[in-house]
Specification:
The chain is an alpha/beta fold and about 550 residues long. About 45% of the residues lie in helices and about 15% in strands. Strands 1-8-7-3-4-5-6-2 form an 8-stranded mixed β-sheet. An 8-stranded parallel barrel has the order 9-10-11-12-13-14-15-16, surrounded by 6 helices. A hairpin with a 4-residue loop joins strand 7 and strand 8. It starts with 12 loop residues before the first strand and ends with a helix.
């Protein structure tokens, strides 16, 4: 086995809990995608077929754009990106080639998307994660061409737990109020399902083998923290929901700075991509992703454009703002960069490495950040992604300070950087651990491969060892060490990180109350004990169970 199984547990099925919270309800699955007829009709009018396919793809793009206007923040950005995929000239050209080879429009779209999905998978990294987006584009276009109902969410007429093989961004972004929780057979901790479910505050479990074996209407309880999904008696459903409602009420009543029960401060910060992601009940921003300004552009945004966009976010945030410089590269290609195709882009030119051949992009971004910070008076700190060596850290810090920005940091995403954290911290003022990529690189497991979700689990003791090593280096240097990966929003893992010596946690706003409450209920000594439990475990699943069991035992 290459990955720890997430299949069964004494209490039921298990997967990766990726969005905390508890609930219960009957399961209902997504309606199946449209099926192509077995008999392929001949192509009598190739030009007409190409035109029909183009019209269907344009319809899909317009519909996704319309839907994106109904939501905000990350969900809107995700839908806009998928809409752009639907009208990508590369896809249109592939469809035309398939029609020329004798395939009708619906079949041509299906074949062309399969071709692009293979190409995306070969690229790996961020691009491979977009394969599910392409599948949604395909299903919507094929349904339009065949006159079939659009694939989408079930409508059972009662609140329910949505189960699926996987969810497209459109499905997840548009979940209605009757959806109580999400459980998918595929997916990993950084999938769109995980990120968007967390943003909406829905309990979610991914990588849950066996979930699709349950018949529709089977009542289950879902724990998005532990990843346990249990079949329950129908009479137990109201009890679970009432207990969950009491939990939510208790969490919402807790306010103020993050700290342990004995008063140790653990600032709770936000991961944001724009103003829509900012919530009032936070102590600042620990990760401001700036890629939204650069997507789908053939030329780089000007300093003025960037400064205006950054100032809008800076003005909305009370407290410090940690801005990540452009995290792009061959695994997140941006047209204006013109980067060469790479055999292994996840290990190639990405993050800070892009500045080697495009120094003006970084220089302009730093100039815009400095201008926006000066205009708003915001406390802005800047960090670079994908830093591997102390020399890179020092060069970046010099560029930040030359731009008039006083605080420079780097992300710890590469195992080599974690191992040499002491040296990096001599050059910068802070570090922030990106556990998504750190897990991928430490465990040699593609974060887009749902079959390897167990290896990508941030509870992996090897990953926790690197977090601990980095935290010790920060303590020795007297400098902050934060965590800004999705795992910081796990209420149990937040305790472990605190016990390892992490000094701040950055997460989606919807999970902040649960993390605050988790910290407030345990002393720092408790957190240190839980950290030792996790580090001493033989694998991720055992680490999670050990910590969850200890916390549950202490609460009874």
């Amino acid at each position: 086995m290459t990955s720890e199984p997430h299949t069964s547990h004494a209490d039921g099925l298990t997967g990766l809990g990726v969005s905390p919270g508890r609930t219960a309800g009957p399961v209902y699955r997504m309606s199946p995608p449209p099926t192509l007829p077995a008999d392929v009709p001949p192509v009598a009018d190739p030009a007409g077929e190409v035109s029909a396919a183009a019209a269907a793809l344009r319809f899909v793009a317009d519909e996704l754009t319309r839907l994106s206007r109904q939501v905000a923040g990350t969900a809107s950005e995700v839908l806009d990106t998928e809409a752009m995929m639907a009208v990508d000239p590369t896809l249109a050209d592939a469809v035309a080639r398939r029609v020329d080879a004798g395939r009708p429009a619906a079949w041509a779209v299906t074949d062309a998307v399969a071709e692009q999905q293979e190409a995306f998978a070969a690229i790996g990294g961020y691009i491979a994660e977009r394969a599910a987006d392409l599948a949604d584009v395909r299903d919507r276009a094929v349904a339009r061409l065949l006159g079939l109902p659009m694939p989408g969410l079930p409508a059972p007429g009662e609140p329910y737990v949505l189960i699926a093989e996987d969810l497209s961004p459109a499905d997840t972004a548009l979940l209605g109020p009757r959806v109580l929780a999400i459980v998918t057979r595929r997916g990993g901790p950084t999938s769109h399902t995980a990120i968007l479910a967390k943003a909406r505050g829905l309990p979610a479990v991914v990588g849950c083998a066996g979930i699709l074996d349950l018949p529709d209407a089977t009542p289950v309880s879902v724990d998005g923290t532990t990843g346990v999904v249990s079949v329950v008696a129908a009479a137990a459903v109201p009890e679970v929901r009432e207990a969950a409602a009491r939990d939510r009420a208790r969490l919402s009543s807790l306010t103020g700075p993050g700290r342990t029960a004995d008063g140790r401060p653990v600032p709770l910060l936000l991961n944001v991509g724009g103003v829509a992601d900012v919530v009032a009940d936070a102590e600042g921003v620990g990760l401001f992703r700036t890629e939204f300004l650069f997507l789908d552009r053939t030329t780089a945004p000007t300093v003025d454009e960037q400064a205006r966009a950054y100032a809008e976010v800076f003005a909305a945030v009370p407290g410090k703002i940690v801005l990540r410089t452009l995290d792009a590269g061959a695994d997140k290609p941006l047209p204006f960069l013109g980067l060469a195709t790479e055999d292994n882009p996840a290990l190639g030119v990405r993050g800070l490495r892009v500045a080697r051949d495009h120094p003006a992009v970084l220089a302009d971004q730093l100039a815009a950040v400095a201008r926006a910070a000066a205009e708003t008076g915001a406390d802005v700190q800047v960090m670079a992604p994908m830093v591997a060596t102390a020399a890179e850290a020092a060069e970046f810090a010099a560029a930040v300070r030359s731009a008039g920005l006083p605080v420079a940091g780097v992300m710890i995403e590469v195992p080599g950087a974690a191992l040499r954290a002491r040296a990096l911290l001599e050059a910068v003022d802070f570090v922030s651990i990106g556990t998504n990529d750190l897990s991928q690189y430490t465990m040699a497991a593609d974060r887009t491969n749902g079959e390897l979700a167990g290896l990508l689990d941030p509870w992996q003791p090897a990953v926790l060892e690197l977090v601990a090593r980095t935290a010790r280096a920060g303590a020795a240097a007297g400098k902050p060490v934060g965590v800004c990966g999705e795992s910081a929003g796990d209420p149990l893992l937040a305790l472990v990180y605190t016990g390892l010596g992490v000094t701040s946690l950055s997460m989606s706003g919807s999970v902040l109350p649960a993390v605050r409450a988790s910290l407030a209920a345990r002393s720092f000594a408790d957190c240190e004990y839980l950290a030792r439990l996790a580090l001493d475990a033989p694998d991720a699943a055992t680490a999670r169970r050990a910590v969850a069991g200890s916390v549950a035992g202490a609460a009874t």
